[in-house]
From TrEMBL:
The organism of origin for this protein: Halogeometricum rufum
Protein name (Swiss-Prot/TrEMBL): Microcystin degradation protein MlrC, contains DUF1485 domain
Ranges of residues in domain Microcystin LR degradation protein MlrC N-terminal: 2-288
Pfam families given in the database record: DUF1485, MlrC_C
InterPro entries noted in UniProt: MlrC, MlrC_C, MlrC_N
Annotated ranges, domain Microcystin LR degradation protein MlrC C-terminal: 298-461
């Protein structure tokens, strides 16, 4: 039994400035793929499950990057060509892929569909193809046409990426053993939903995810999923989806399960509220000032690098600089290569003047001065801690990064986050580690490339009407 594996992951924010080139991706090809760091998320679970079943693995290619602006055509074509270079002329019994599912490429709003079509062309119509997808995947007709089985994350924050890979591999193995004949049931519905309203532990998501586990128990159903799409993409395929993998012999049940799941989600559409207390930025800082416990972790939700934003908006930082009732706040992270280079050139304890980041949407940098306190480099980014003269400490990075998802990162810069009254993070919903540490959590609903007020975004290609952009949207399966 010989199975091809591969990975392609990018969550594309089409509202973000610039483009994402191949240099932003961690990549690996051929035999380097299975053990490569950072090129796959569910790939480890896929490879391990296949290896446990004594499958021979044919590694193709992997490419993964931090969410960001529209992917350059050349980068996507490289990935597609690398997949094909390793599939053409080979005979495989199955294919199992690790895909995000919400990538947008210049001139190609459905790159996962295009990649799957290319894989299908290489392996032929009879070879089963399964995939692990992110919960925030945007499912398209072409993806459904070329996939036989799908498993999706059921947690947000995503803590089940490996298990999801194992589920996708198990679907493939069941098909290869002849135990199952895979079929998909797909029901898209016209809804945009941000992750900040749909964490898996919050209602109504928790109950809806419970329904998936119940659906899995239905005769003829193997793996039921919701895919929530990605709201910061102006995509003609935008929407939410129920996608169910079941047995071809029970195709009516599989279709009906998808329909029921979609209807159940739609019925509860008005209940998806922010999963964390949310305020406009000034009110969020007032709330933080009034809190007794520390630290209050304030998420700067308009500038989330984990959802593709530039991580360089200084709007919230500018407001922090104006206040004296928040102790000495720390801001992590502002991505600004020039400012980082200035800090890098300075010894610890040296004064620096910076033109930092940009105001949103004006684009003007914030002129600040301060003292460089520490440097810390990771595989992801080089960072410096600067103590600004106005009483705020800010971490400056040489590039966009999500390294601050782990509070231990701040400790390496000499900051004890538990000792601060306020920690402001370029984040949406917090990572589990920050949730453990925060005495209180707040969303500051800043303007930016991940603006949480979806109705204010300039959508042109999203099919309308769409909830919640339009009033009185009706839908039935
Ligand atoms: Zn996701």
């Amino acid at each position: 039994m010989r199975v091809a594996v591969g990975a392609m992951s990018h969550e594309t924010n089409t509202f973000a400035d610039g483009t994402t080139g191949i240099e932003s991706f961690a990549t690996a090809t051929g035999t380097d793929l299975p053990d490569a760091d950072g090129v796959g998320r569910s790939l480890g679970g896929i490879v391990e499950t296949l290896a446990d079943a004594d499958a021979e693995i044919l590694p193709t290619a992997g490419a993964s990057a931090l969410p960001g602006p529209t992917v350059e055509r050349e980068a996507f074509e490289w990935v597609r060509a690398e997949f094909r270079a390793r599939l053409d002329g080979e005979t495989v019994d199955g294919v199992c892929l690790d895909l995000h599912g919400s990538m947008s490429v210049e001139g190609e709003p459905d790159p996962e569909g295009a990649l799957l079509a290319s894989v299908r062309e290489a392996v032929g119509p009879e070879v089963p193809v399964t995939a692990a997808l992110d919960m925030h995947a945007t499912v398209t007709e072409r993806m459904v046409a070329h996939l036989d089985g799908v498993a999706g994350y059921r947690t947000a924050p995503h803590t089940d990426v490996e298990e999801t890979g194992a589920r996708a591999a198990d679907l493939l193995l069941a098909s290869l053993s002849g135990e199952a004949s895979l079929a998909l049931g797909w029901e898209p519905f016209p809804m945009l939903l941000a992750g900040e309203r749909s964490e898996s532990e919050a209602e109504p998501m928790r109950t809806l995810l419970e329904r998936l586990r119940e659906a899995d128990e239905t005769d003829g159903v193997y793996d039921a999923n919701y895919f929530l799409g990605f709201p910061w993409a102006d995509s003609p395929h935008a929407g939410c989806h129920a996608l169910v993998t079941g047995d071809a012999s029970a195709s009516a049940t599989v279709e009906e399960t998808a329909t029921d799941l979609a209807a159940a989600f739609w019925r509860r559409r008005d209940e998806f509220d922010f999963t964390t207390e949310a305020h406009d930025p000034a009110a969020a800082l007032d709330e933080a000032a009034a809190a007794d416990a520390r630290p209050v972790v304030v998420a700067d939700t308009g500038d989330i690098p984990g959802a593709g934003a530039g991580e360089n908006a200084t709007n919230l930082l500018a407001m922090l600089l104006e206040r004296s009732d928040l102790g000495r706040p720390v801001v992590a992270v502002v991505a600004d290569a020039d400012s980082h280079a200035t800090c890098r050139a300075a010894e610890r304890g040296t004064a620096v003047s910076l033109s930092l980041g940009r105001a949103y949407p004006e684009g003007t940098p914030l002129d600040v001065s301060g003292t460089v306190l520490a440097h810390h480099d990771t595989d992801d980014a080089r960072t410096a801690l600067v103590s600004l003269d106005e009483g705020v400490d800010v971490v400056v990075a040489d590039r966009r990064t999500n390294v601050h998802r782990d509070p231990a990162f701040l400790r390496r810069l000499g900051v004890d986050p538990s000792a601060r009254r306020v920690v402001a993070l370029k984040s949406g919903y917090l990572s589990p580690a920050w949730k453990d540490l925060a005495a209180k959590r707040l969303f500051a609903l800043t303007r930016g490339e991940t603006d949480q007020r979806l109705a204010s975004l300039p959508y042109e290609r999203v099919p309308r009407p769409c909830y919640p952009l339009d009033e009185d949207v009706t839908w039935s399966p």
